[in-house]
Amino acid sequence: MTIRLTDIWAIPEPSRYKLHFARFNRIDQPLDVFVRSRAEWQGWQEFRPRSDQFNRPFVFSVIDFYREPDIWLFGGVWEVVERLPDRYVVSLTDQGRDFIGRLKLHSPYRQRGTRVNFEKRMDEFTVSEVLREEYSGLEFPGHDRIDIGFGELEALIRNGRADWRGALENAKGVYLIADTGTGRLYVGAAYGEGGIWSRWREYVETGHGGNVRLRELLEDRDLDYCQTHFRFSLLESHSVRIADDAIIERETYWKGVLHSRGKLGFNS
Length: 268
Description:
Blueprint: H1 5-8, E1 17-22, H2 30-36, H3 38-46, E2 58-64, E3 71-83, E4 88-92, E5 103-106, E6 115-117, H4 118-121, E7 126-130, E8 147-149, H5 150-159, H6 162-169, E9 171-179, E10 184-190, H7 195-206, H8 212-217, H9 223-229, E11 230-239, H10 244-257
Parallel strand pairs: 1-2
Antiparallel strand pairs: 1-6, 2-3, 3-4, 3-5, 5-7, 8-11, 9-10, 9-11
């Protein structure tokens, strides 16, 4: 049975609301932003383009749940407190507060505009799911199914998501970083204290993790480049009991298989 948003939430005077469809802005996925920093997510409501698009008292925000087509995560109702020439001043209201980060809605909306009149689209929303807890990042899919972007990894690390941390702290392995901006690959190994989790945390903090060629790549770039172009995957994982030399040997093997030395990659 289809349950519409309006079946579970009576919103009086919808003409007082703008609807914000938050989508990828060529740097960040708003879902990753929401997970890693609520202050940064508020900044998405405060951004003001040249035209006054948030020209109503309230903003009903939904977030592209980009791993599931046509699914949007409720991100709060914001009051527009002040309209400055270069930004909005907003305040999170109590409206639907218990649904923030939990209510997943379905809408086929794919038009270009991201800020539209609420009453024109509210009837299109149907309830997909109500999560037991606020969304805090992708569930751990298994060591052999990891393929995530830098932004997703950053959100998981910043929040210390327990399922990911438990699985990766207790594993050594060989990993791959793919730079979709250049098409080049980097093969690395994680075998120190804290396992894969600790090694990947270094990339979240620096972007390059200490690698010489990645550091060179980022000399004239910032972490925005990493968030846009870096993807992480595990080529193989092992128990922390395996000898470090065995991990290093497997790292060397994968460097050869993927030709990640020289022009095709970032390995020396």
